[in-house]
Each structure stands twice: as structure tokens, then as C-alpha cells.
């Protein structure tokens, strides 16, 4: 495994649960129902983005026991997007390993918000709907006839956070919910093609490709090409866009004829994680890899890491001229 591939795997798995191993990823509502986790309602008092921490005043405890004021650890990127104010629900863990093997103890100084598949951070706007879903039995809820309708209406929710969550529910219960009617498949396609959370779109795009024909055939490759055509390379600063771009390139590698050659060349100028996949597409298209690399390397403006990666690939071809 190359360092680029290892980083790529980290990109794709960054949306997976920080609470459980990837092999045990649960639908988000089920993961968040863990009785060991605390659920409180209250206000954000202060946010320290640099430290990755916020101060939370608790108005009421909906699950577990909690002090009146919490200092909650949070990802610094998320913290930078938070604003102090009332009306929040916070799901957090204050567990840490004890001196005894496999024993956890509570420590309020270790309190932190969590992430799950479909949930970037376990902090929500307080509402009757949010309280209902975060407090209900997720297994029993998933067996109700209204659950299926809720998933598809949730994909069109006003709040992107809930669109992300319901995409996670759909992805992780995809087989159980099968079969899908034409209207539902159209809703999934529309969601992936839309302007919703990039991580959620990546999740369903990959699922549609990997589980084909569960949600129809053919369209994931076409949609992947459209994603790559519309996404500027500067958008890759955001984690969600990284996931979406990597998903689209992975699908394009499996269907290289669906991607225009000039578009594959365009993605060769991306950071190495993505350029490596684009190079695979160029090879799969049967093109002159050496000449393509030389054309890219002739550019005056190219990110340093990308240039080094492309130079390394070019050097290998020079040493092995019979290979393309």
C-alpha cells in the first residue's frame, strides 16, 4: 500500500464512527442510542476553536447524568463553525479507560462530542423532532412503516445536518429496505446530483455503484463524471469534497470510458491522493501515460506535492520504457 493510498483510505473513512470500529459501523440513530452516552439540552456559552473546546451550560439532562456546566472537546474545524447561543442538544461521551483492562470510567473533564456515519458532530439544534429521534428506540423505529417515508423526506430536509444523517440511515440499511421503487431511486439520484452535504452525496454515490443494481444501473458512472467536471480543485480543502471527489474518481477508474480524457488530465493536477487515481484512469483509457505526464510537468504552476508525485511516476516510466 502506498502512502497516497493509505491517506486516501483515511479520507474515505473519516466520516465513519469515532465511537466504534469501522467494522461495527451502525446506522447513526442506533449508534447514538448507546446508553453509555449522555444527552443534554442547553446553551453554548463559549467556543475556543484553537483548543477545540466549547463551554456548554446544561438546562436539562435527557439521558444519563451531567454537571450543570460542561467543557466539551470538539474537532477544531467544527468548532470554527459554531456560535455561542441557546437551543442545542449535545450528545457526548465522558468515558475513558481505567487502570483495569477493558474497563471504562466516567470523567467529566474528558467529555467530548462524537462523530458517526452520517453525523459530523453530535451537536444538534434543539427541536421536538430532534428530541424524538435521539430519544427513541432506533431498532423499533426502523421497523415502523413510517421509517421508510422519513428517510426519503429526510433527504430533502432543510437542515443539511439531518440530510447527512438520513443518508447514513439509508446507506447502512440499504439491503434491509430493498426493493426500491422508481420514485425512491429517482430521489436518491436527485440527492447525489444536488447540492447537499458532499460527504452524504459521496456515501450514496459509492453505495449506488458498489451495490448496483440495487438503486439502478449506469447512472453512478455518469454522475461521477459530472462531479469531477463541476468540482474545482480548490474545493478539495474541505473534507466532504475530498470524500466526494475520491468516490467519483474511484468509480471513474472502474468505468474509464465514462470520463473525458481532458477531465482525467485535469485531475492529474490534484493532490497526490487524487492524482494517483487519475493516473490509473489515464492508463485504463489506453493513452500514452509518459506523454501525458510530460505535458503536465511542463506547467509552470503545479502544487509541489503533486509535481513530486508525477515526477516519480515519470521516472519509473523512463526506467521501464516498455510499460505505459
Tell me about this structure:
With 324 residues, the chain is α+β, with helices and mostly antiparallel strands. Helix content is 49%, strand content 15%. The strands form two sheets. Strands 1, 2, 3, 4, 7 and 8 form a six-stranded antiparallel β-sheet that branches. Strands 5-6 form a two-stranded antiparallel sheet. The two termini are 21 Å apart.
Give me the secondary-structure topology:
Blueprint: H1 3-13, H2 28-32, E1 38-48, E2 53-63, E3 69-73, H3 76-79, E4 85-93, E5 95-97, E6 104-106, E7 112-113, E8 123-125, H4 128-135, H5 138-142, H6 145-154, H7 160-172, H8 174-177, H9 182-193, H10 198-210, H11 219-230, H12 239-254, H13 261-267, H14 272-284, H15 289-297, H16 304-319
Antiparallel strand pairs: 1-2, 1-4, 2-3, 4-7, 4-8, 5-6
Category from helices, strands and their pairing: alpha+beta
In total, how many beta strands?
A: 8
In whole angstroms, the N-to-C terminal distance is 21 Å
Oligomer, anyone?
Answer: single chain
| Low-confidence segments | 1-23
**Averaged pLDDT, please?**
91
Major sheet attributes: 6 strands, antiparallel
> What's the alpha carbon Rg, rounded to whole Å?
22 Å
Strand content range: 5-15%
- Indicate the overall shape: globular
**What sequence of helices (H) and strands (E) makes up the elements?**
HHEEEHEEEEEHHHHHHHHHHHHH
What level of helicity do the residues show? 40-55%
Count of alpha/pi helices: 16
Amino acid at each position: 500500500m502506498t502512502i497516497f493510498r493509505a491517506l486516501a483510505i483515511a479520507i474515505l473513512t473519516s466520516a465513519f464512527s469515532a465511537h466504534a470500529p469501522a467494522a461495527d459501523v451502525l446506522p447513526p440513530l442506533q449508534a447514538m442510542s448507546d446508553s453509555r452516552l449522555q444527552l443534554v439540552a442547553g446553551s453554548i456559552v463559549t467556543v475556543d476553536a484553537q483548543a477545540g473546546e466549547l463551554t456548554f451550560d446544561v438546562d436539562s439532562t435527557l439521558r444519563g447524568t451531567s454537571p450543570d456546566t460542561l467543557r466539551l472537546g470538539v474537532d477544531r474545524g467544527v468548532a470554527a463553525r459554531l456560535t455561542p447561543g441557546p437551543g442545542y442538544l449535545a450528545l457526548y461521551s465522558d468515558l475513558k479507560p481505567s487502570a483495569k483492562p477493558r474497563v471504562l470510567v466516567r470523567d467529566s473533564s474528558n467529555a467530548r462530542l462524537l462523530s458517526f456515519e452520517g453525523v459530523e458532530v453530535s451537536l444538534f439544534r434543539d427541536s421536538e423532532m430532534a428530541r424524538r429521534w435521539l430519544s427513541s428506540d432506533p431498532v423499533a423505529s426502523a421497523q415502523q412503516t413510517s421509517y421508510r417515508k422519513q428517510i426519503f423526506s429526510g433527504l430533502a430536509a432543510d437542515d443539511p445536518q439531518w440530510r447527512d444523517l438520513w443518508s447514513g440511515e439509508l446507506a447502512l440499511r440499504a439491503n434491509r429496505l430493498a426493493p426500491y421503487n422508481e420514485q425512491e431511486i429517482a430521489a436518491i439520484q436527485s440527492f447525489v446530483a444536488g447540492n447537499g452535504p458532499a460527504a452524504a452525496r459521496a456515501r450514496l454515490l459509492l453505495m449506488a455503484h458498489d451495490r448496483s443494481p440495487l438503486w439502478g444501473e449506469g447512472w453512478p458512472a455518469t454522475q461521477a463524471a459530472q462531479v469531477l467536471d463541476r468540482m474545482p480543485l480548490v474545493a478539495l480543502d474541505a473534507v466532504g469534497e475530498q470524500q466526494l471527489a475520491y468516490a467519483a474518481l474511484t468509480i471513474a477508474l472502474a468505468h474509464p470510458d465514462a470520463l473525458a480524457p481532458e477531465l482525467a488530465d485535469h485531475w492529474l493536477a490534484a493532490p497526490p491522493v487524487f492524482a494517483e487515481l487519475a493516473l490509473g484512469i489515464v492508463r485504463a483509457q489506453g493513452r500514452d501515460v509518459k506523454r501525458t505526464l510530460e505535458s503536465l510537468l511542463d506547467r509552470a504552476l503545479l502544487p509541489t506535492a503533486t509535481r513530486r508525485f508525477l515526477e516519480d511516476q515519470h521516472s519509473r516510466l523512463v526506467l521501464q520504457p516498455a510499460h505505459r
